[in-house]
Amino acid sequence: MANSTSRRKLAIVVGGGPAPGINGVISSVTIEAINQGFEVFGVRDGFKYLVAGINPDDPTQVRHLTIPDVAPHYQRGGSILGTSRTNPTKKDEDMKMVLAGLEKLGTEYLVTIGGDDTAFSGSQVYARAGGKIRVAHVPKTIDNDLPLPPGIPTFGFETARHIGVELARNIKEDARTTTRWYILVSMGRAAGHLALGIGKASAATVTVIAEELRGKKVNLDLIADLIIGSMIKRKAQGKGYGVVVLAEGLLEAIGADALKADLGDRMNMYGTIEEDDFGHLRLGEIEFGRMIRHRVAQRLEDISEAARVKAGKTAKEWKNPLKSTMIDKDLGYELRCADPVPFDAEYTRNLGYGAVKFLMSEEADRVGAVISFVGEKLVPRPFQEMIDPKTKKMRPRLVDVESQSFECARRYMIRLEPGDFTKPESLGKLADAARMTPEEFRTRFEYLVR
Fold first, then answer.
1. For residue 183, which of 293, 271, 275 has the smallest C-alpha distance?
2. Helix ranges restricted to H, 241-287
3. FRET label pair with 230: which of 132, 184, 191, 222, CA 20 to 30 Å apart?
4. CA–CA separation, 346 vs 348, rounded Å?
5. Active site includes 145?
6. Is 204 helix (H, G, I), strand (E, B) or coil?
7. Best CATH choice for the domain 8-155+340-394 from the list 1.20.1600.10, 3.40.50.450, 2.30.29.30, 3.40.30.10
8. pLDDT tens-digit profile of 189-225?
């Protein structure tokens, strides 16, 4: 084998949030690249050190990778190279530092691992390097929202869903045992795939995602009423418990300005509104589940108080018909660094191998590309096909709410439907559960199904 001074050099950079399977990609890229005669370096913590001016001799910034280094981590969660959300495209001088740093490392080949922000960063390295660096991007996100071919998930999604479903099933049994309602908030900024996948597979009572509310004014009251409608319907069935799954992307659908206007000074109760380097709301800084739980409790109390006044009862005499213990919980960080399930372990091996295979091809001289597999065959997709030049992001793959798959998910949820308002018997039972007249119930909740 050629000595280290003449060997081609390949660098790996991981950006964005963790996802199960990162180490699988790092491992498979490293093994295949070394077997093909490359020298492999792992850049630690995303683009952070590259932007700051990397020191190639500092092992806390750059890790020389060997097969024994990576092989034991193939099926482990986390990232042996760390990760960060540093945005190297924010300033021109930052990108110049990145290119200079990669040149210091002698990088001729680059594999970036991450979501749409990291993909754009990788595309800019390719564009600005002027053909000196071949670039392959391996798409990663537990949100499953990158525009891969239909039916092809992003790596990490299947593991995150698997872990999320196990947690949701346990919580569902606790809800049944203790007669409580749980409000679970699932990760999924741009799309509701993970929330819907967890809710559907765990048979949650109701799942709400942003895609189904397109065209509506999304606010806290709308989301609270969707939940309350399910609670009332369950009550009419003689059950005072359930599990709600919400996609965190509902926060994005509401928007920072609307949240501030709605909550005013009370916003401080639920965290702070901040943005990361890529201009995204830091959803982890906002206690969305707690916010919704409080809004549901407030609106349930308003319904009960109206019924009490109508019944002519004193507060001491009155028993709230809809009173329920509610608990909110995030399904987030515990999903991101789990050991990958067999699907993701196998899938990431394909992706890592595919990245090296693409970089060694003549096509990599002409384009940088996002790596995907279709029908078990490698299909590199050029950056210019994947990234919107206006938004500088990959176009998000949303849940298709017109699909039979979503139709199936809705059929097994307990939530208010148009038929609940057209069938007198159904409407009567719901109104009785809420201590309303049928017309009062219609006036209060029918807007949800229009």
1. 293
2. 249-254, 256-263
3. 191
4. 6
5. no
6. coil
7. 3.40.50.450
8. 889 999 999 999 999 999 999 999 998 999 999 999 9
